[in-house]
Amino acid sequence: MRSLNLKNLVKRFIVISLFAAVHQNGYASELDSVSTNFELRTQGFHNTKECFPLHMENIDSVNTLYLYCSKIAFEQDGLSKDVSENFSISSELARRFNFWKRIYSLWSEDQYVLHIANYPEVVLEIADVSDLDAELHWSKKQKRAYKILKERKKQYKQVLKKMHALRTAPEHFSPTMKRIAANMKHIDDSNKYRIAANSIRTQRGQRDPIAKGLANSTRYMDILEAIFESEGIPKELAKIAFIESSFNLKAHSKVGASGVYQLMPGTAKQFKLKVTKTIDERRDPVKSARAAAKLLKENFRILKQWPLAITAYNHGAYGLKKAIRKTHSSRIEDLIENYNSPSFGFASKNFYAGYLAILATLNKSEQVFPNIVDSPPLIFTEVKLKRTTKISSIRKQYSLTNETIKDFNPDLSNRFLRYGSLPRNYLLKIPVLNTNTAQSDR
Predict the structure, then answer these.
(1) Tens digit of each residue's pLDDT (9 = 90 or more) over 195-246
(2) Which phi and psi angles does 50 have, rounded to 5°?
(3) Is the C or the N end of the chain the one with fewer CB within 10 Å?
(4) What residue ranges define each of the domains in the chain, with the CATH number in brackets?
């Protein structure tokens, strides 16, 4: 009994010492002051049904915002919901889904979200650089935001470590700790604060690229959805291009993926796309959609579930098979929670929820992006060349300019359009007005 009492006294002494250290250290005072102000300012918002960012302070022309969720909004954030006719999000992934929906629909490229990688929905703060000089290059704006957030990361890491130490005595939490704890109350893990301290990351808002991609996609989307349907898979999967590239027609990754569907060279060749220095069919949304649809169909054949097949688009089907063996579960929620592998990182764990978040955003595009000007749909016919044909002959035969050929066939390089010859069996897209002329070459 004496031993037990002594243990309790020692434990209490440690807690009191930690509590005193938190309030003696200068790093906590600034955050605590802003957090206290945040609590006061949000007292009249307890019945709001949506989470929303609230401006708190300005540091060197960078605005700091906190995300506020009332009890009602917080509960709704964790509810399962139907996203489309074929897809829904479970309650286990709902908060992750809603975080990404805000990234794609609410926060712009001028807003940098400081959050927790292991619990993406836990937003610590948002840095907004939109008030910086309009003439300032985006890279300098980004540098300014990251400089402030780098310091804040250090501060939050210390706060979260103290929260872990004080987790059995939450009554001693500072205002900043209480604000963070409220955002993490749904997480049932005694080590959640320690985990959070070691996984703070920055995510840039994506509203602007998605809006631009939406304008680009209206030229192609009806055609792409028809391609996916023709493969016997849900047409909504055509929109996976948005999570891959924001439907950026010139997207090219550091690891070699290219096009709106971000296909790697090996994957492209597996599905019969031509990839050379002069012709790269990954850059053609129509041709790359045929390969992407086949890849997703193959993933589904192997994995039997769309959440896994979609995740495999990022991680690979056999990588997912390995994860299933290791965790003894085929539920995407279990893989995210329990599968630990360097290759199954942040991007793979968030790919499915991110895709559904984009799908939900696009399904309400008229409300989310009211000022989008649609591009006219691409109307064309395809000609399969029977022989190797010079570009000069194509121009003459179909009365086309290089600009029109490039517009309809973005897989052709500019240099190729000046000097090249199209190979036998190449599928050439030409304006539908040239259909009658084209019939002879089929």
Answers:
(1) 999 999 999 999 999 999 999 999 999 999 999 999 999 999 999 999 999 9
(2) -125, 145
(3) N
(4) 15-205 (no CATH), 212-368 (1.10.530.10), 380-441 (no CATH)
